[in-house]
Structures are given as structure tokens and as C-alpha cells.
Amino acid sequence: MISDKTVERLSQYRWLLEMHVDAQTINLFSHQLASMASVSPAQLRRDLMAIGYSGSPGKGYMVRDLTESIGRFLDGSKPTRVAVVGMGNLGRAIVSFLSGRRSHLKIVASFDTDVTKSGRVIGGSHCYSQDKLEEIIKRENISVAVLTVPSPVAQSVAEKLIDAGIKGILNYAPVPLKVPEQVYIENRDVTAALEKVAYFARQTEERE
Amino acid sequence: MISDKTVERLSQYRWLLEMHVDAQTINLFSHQLASMASVSPAQLRRDLMAIGYSGSPGKGYMVRDLTESIGRFLDGSKPTRVAVVGMGNLGRAIVSFLSGRRSHLKIVASFDTDVTKSGRVIGGSHCYSQDKLEEIIKRENISVAVLTVPSPVAQSVAEKLIDAGIKGILNYAPVPLKVPEQVYIENRDVTAALEKVAYFARQTEERE
């Protein structure tokens, strides 16, 4: 089993190859890509070996070939169908951020309890009433949800999502969710992230 | 040096103690708090030992005492002064999310290049023109920045922030930043997080 840190770095390598390598660059040495990603060359080589990829000593990595190899590993054969639940500022930011950005991540629906939002098309996909959560998730064959609902309802909404067949949740609500072991959860609590940055920033200040 | 994972979990324990323990609960056993946080009791005990806290065998942890101990460790003696740079949907979500939530994290300014936003008060703090970044960061003694600017300008904005004295950056731009070693960076790229969740969700689907 490949670790979640490795998956995260692979996603970053691909993004760098796509966005920061100009079209004329055909090959790239491991130390160059490693430096762009701020990891060690050894780390990069280990990550790529984990997906069965290795460069050649004389030429390094072929950019296009490597990009495609990472894609085959990360994306699977069909696009992942995604729903965003909770269309406040954060939900809307995520929808507009992802819309059309990645063909293998397809936001097919969003949900909100606010009736002035549901029924509209927001960022290219239909926003439904939260009452229809289970019906739409099943009908649209959605496997991943981004959760940006208020904390007090996050657990109950997560349970409905899982009952409807969701296998992975990207959770922005600042509450740890209890989910069955086979459901993958990634927590992205803003306050916790900021507390952590503040803590380490203070260590630096105190050393100075 | 305490690891960033430990700092992240300590922040979560405090949040659970504050939000999910009712006022009548005076003490709590490690297995109870560990279960709320979805970690093992051994992990919880190790994390608390790292900040010099241990419970008593008969009574476990005293809720108020533990909350305060974590606070003394995480927060320092003065509030951390924070700026949000980039006031699109994501920046606004973060400002409204944090405003007044945590007294030790104080958003004192935000910045945007859009002149219709700068000059206004958004979410309780003043929004300035991005031209004034360095001046205001220095004047307001801001040590931490949340970066939600577009990718192509993220590196140059980060450099300005660091020149002005910023010690920690919470980066939502989907680009790895090059910063001096003493500056703490936490990357929170939405696409990378979602790709990771999609990958692990697909593993579950394929097993079923």
C-alpha cells in the first residue's frame, strides 16, 4: 500500500511537470524536479519507484512520459465524480477553483440547505437542496464529497453521504468525523492549520 | 523539537475539550479523549507527555487543567497577529471563519489588488491595497500570513511577506513556495488534497 504522503507528493510532481516545465523541455534530471518540489532527490526517486518508474542515468526523466505515468497511477480510468456539500464562501471557492481544472476530478453536484442557492447552477454544476443528498449521490454515482458544512451537522451529513455510497471525504468542518474504516477521510481544519503555523512562527521569533 | 503532527493533534485535543465536553465533566480518561480524537490512547499519552502533562491513574485528566496546559504550550503569551493576502472567496471564507473564533489568533489586516475591496472593513479587519503589504505588515507587527493569491504571483508575494518580517505562511496557492529555512510553511493545496482522497476512495471501490 502506497502511503498518503507519497500520493500527495506524486500529485505535486505532476502539477509541477504540467505547469512549470516549458514545452521545449523534453527531459529533466531528478535533482531538478526534486528542487522544484522542495524534496530531496532520494525522496523523489523513492516515490517514483513506488509507481514503477525510473529514469535513465544519462537523460533523467522524460517529462511527458513521467507525467502520463503519474496520471495513470493517480487518476484511474474514469473521472472521479465529486460533490461539494455546503455552498458558503468556502464551498463556492472550492467549486470555482476546481471547475474545469482537472478532467479526472469532476464536480457533478453541490448541495446547500439555503433555498436561494439550491436550484441554481453554481460554478458549472447544479446546486441541489440538501434534502436530496442521498438521492442525487446515488443517481449521479458520486464517490467523493467535499464537506464544508457547519460543525454541529458535519457528523450527521457525513453519515448520510456514506449511506449513499461515498468512499472518500475531504472535510473542512473543524470536527473529527467518525467513519467506517473503509472510508478515507482527509481533514483540512483551517484553525488547526493556522494554530500550527503560529506555533512554529513563534519558535522562530523566540530564537531571533 | 516537537513534531508538527504532535502540534496538530494538540490543537485538536484542545478543540475537543472546549467544544465537545460539557461543563459538568470535570475529569476524562485517556481512552475517552483518544476515542473522541480518533487516535490510540498511547498516542494521546505520548503527545501530552511531550508538553509535560500526565493524568492520574484514578481520575485521568482534569478537563480544565489540561485545556489550559495545551493553551499555554500552543498559544504563547501574546496573540499571534495574522494577515490574509488575497480576498477572493477563499480569503473571505477564512476571515469570516476565524474572526473572533480564537482570541490568540488575531486577523489584523487583509490585502487585495482589487481596489473595490481595499479600503473596506471585511470580517472585522481592514482590507488594504496589496501595494501596502510591506508597510502594514511591519507597522502592525504581523508574524503569520494566510496566502490565497493566484499561483503565478504566490512566490513573489511570499518573498515580500518574508522581507517584511513574516515567520509563518499558511499557503492555499497550489504551488510549492521557496522560502528560507527559518520560515515555516504549511501547504494546503485543495486540488492535491482532493486527488489524494479520490485515489484512496478508488482503492476502496476496487476492493468492493
**Proportion in helices of chain A:** 40-55%
- End-to-end C-alpha gap of chain A: 43 Å
Number of domains of chain A: 2
Widest sheet, order of strands of chain A = 5-6-4-3-7-8-9
Number of strands of chain A: 9
The CATH architecture term of the largest domain in chain A is 3-Layer(aba) Sandwich
Output the number of helix runs of chain A. Answer: 8
Biggest sheet of chain A, open or closed, and with what strands and sense?
7 strands, mixed
CATH class of the largest domain in chain A: Alpha Beta
Order of helices and strands of chain A: HEHHEHEHEEEHEHEEH
Looking at how many chains there are and whether they match, the oligomeric state comes to homodimer
Most extensive chain-chain interface = A-B, 65 and 65 residues
Structural class of chain A: alpha/beta
Strand content of chain A: 15-25%
Name of the CATH superfamily of the largest domain in chain A: NAD(P)-binding Rossmann-like Domain
By CATH, the topology of the largest domain in chain A is Rossmann fold
Average pLDDT taken over every residue of chain A:
90
Low-confidence stretches of chain A: none
Radius of gyration of chain A: 20 Å
What form of chain A results from the Cα inertia axes?
globular
